[in-house]
Amino acid sequence: MNHERSRELYGRALSVLAGGVNSSVRATKPYPFFIERGDGAHVIDADGNKYLDYVMGYGPLLYGHDLPEPVAAAIQSHAADGPMYGAPTEIEVELAEFVARHVPSVEMLRFVNSGTEATVSAVRLARGHTGRDKIVVMQGGYHGAQESTLVEGDANNPQPSTAGIPEEFAQHTLPIPFNDPDAAQAVFEEHGDDIAAVLTEPILGNMGIVMPVDGFHETLRELCDDHGSLLIFDEVITGFRVGGLQCAQGKFGITPDLTTFGKIVGGGFPVGAIGGRAELIEQFAPSGDVFQSGTFSGHPVTMAAGLANLEYAAENDVYDHVNSLGEQLRSGLRDILADQAPEYTVVGTDSMFKVIFTRDGATDRGSQCGAGCQQDPDCQHYDHCPKTGADVADADTERWERLFWQAMKDQGVFLTANQYESQFISYAHTEADIEETLAAYAEAL
Ligand code: PLP
């Protein structure tokens, strides 16, 4: 493949954008390919190369790059009316009503502009509501580029995970292993009176897709109830992707106090949202005393895109289609790995998937351990499935990122370059695309 134009653009970008990009994950090696346009399930780069796309904007694009006609029409009509006003519009009320109607825990919301903003506001709301400072997070979880959650280590020794965050800030964040009820119990025993909230993705989506084991969310729910802390589900990835319109909380039958959204709820435009019980959400100013604000929040074009997106999903076979392709792909991948790389692991659910380059012998995990096993204690492979961030932390990231990702790209398949970030299937993908993808995996492996 020729990438001359991308190389040239990257050269220009390097002199005006830090690292040549606007989000660190896009800085793929040796240089990113620049996208010119999308076409259904494909993207076309600046040199005219075409790739089957499983990045899907890192999750927001439920329909791929060709929007259904009503979605495109809603966007165009709101954009044509002037982009935004700094005053309320009907469309934001309609999207809020739609979300509140479908997502079990949500009675009221506030829209913001990114998943990061949503988790920042949710944490502030939890602290304001409880008058407490500490939040519990999961090791390997991700909640955006914010001070309270860019923390690593464990509950006894939390440390900022990036330069630029004061150590004192990190002391308020208590990381515990996902799927470890004893660790959750212990952190509440020690800090229970100071914990404002437990903040977790219902499925870890930035650590290779780690499913919750049976009972873990229930334990968190109980501990929060017993100690007067809030349970916050970060559904920025899983919202309106896993569990259909009810999201992951509907799939697992757990009702968090607060939920954060992003990605799909904005239909491909910048978005975030914090939802929950009315008495909690009403603590945002001006009805309450927790400050929250945003010039672009509830942007009419975003709201129109989000609403048309979700209404289309409610009226068509969107989730059936993407989830069944997800099953086809994961099952095909399991067969390929069993044959070619039995030490590797297929993970995922609904329309999310990933192959993790787990190492032979180090974990005794096999390709048989897909998402079903992670969920089913009766499965013969259950003990060997990844259940915590640490279980997948030893993966061969170098091999994935330097060799495998490139080999897939060379065959015209665009995957997330990071070993741990999920991939996504859209309504534009077809069974034939999945077969083509499986052949590319077999070849690249
Ligand atoms: N929460 C989760 C679970 C995410 O995966 C992300 C981003 O990928 C965020 C929050 C942050 O969202 P954004 O990048 O829109 O700020």
Automatic annotation (TrEMBL):
Its cofactor is pyridoxal 5'-phosphate. Its main location: cytoplasm. Pathway: Porphyrin-containing compound metabolism; protoporphyrin-IX biosynthesis; 5-aminolevulinate from L-glutamyl-tRNA(Glu): step 2/2. GO terms for molecular function: glutamate-1-semialdehyde 2,1-aminomutase activity; pyridoxal phosphate binding; transaminase activity. InterPro entries: 4pyrrol_synth_GluAld_NH2Trfase (IPR004639), Aminotrans_3 (IPR005814), Aminotrans_3_PPA_site (IPR049704), PyrdxlP-dep_Trfase (IPR015424), PyrdxlP-dep_Trfase_major (IPR015421), PyrdxlP-dep_Trfase_small (IPR015422). Keywords: Cytoplasm, Isomerase, Porphyrin biosynthesis, Pyridoxal phosphate. PROSITE patterns: AA_TRANSFER_CLASS_3. GO terms for cellular component: cytoplasm. The modification N6-(pyridoxal phosphate)lysine is found at K263. Its EC number is 5.4.3.8. It is found in: Cytoplasm. It catalyses: (S)-4-amino-5-oxopentanoate = 5-aminolevulinate. One of its GO terms (biological process) is protoporphyrinogen IX biosynthetic process. It is an enzyme of class 5 (isomerase). Belongs to the class-III pyridoxal-phosphate-dependent aminotransferase family. HemL subfamily. This is Glutamate-1-semialdehyde 2,1-aminomutase. It comes from Halonotius aquaticus.
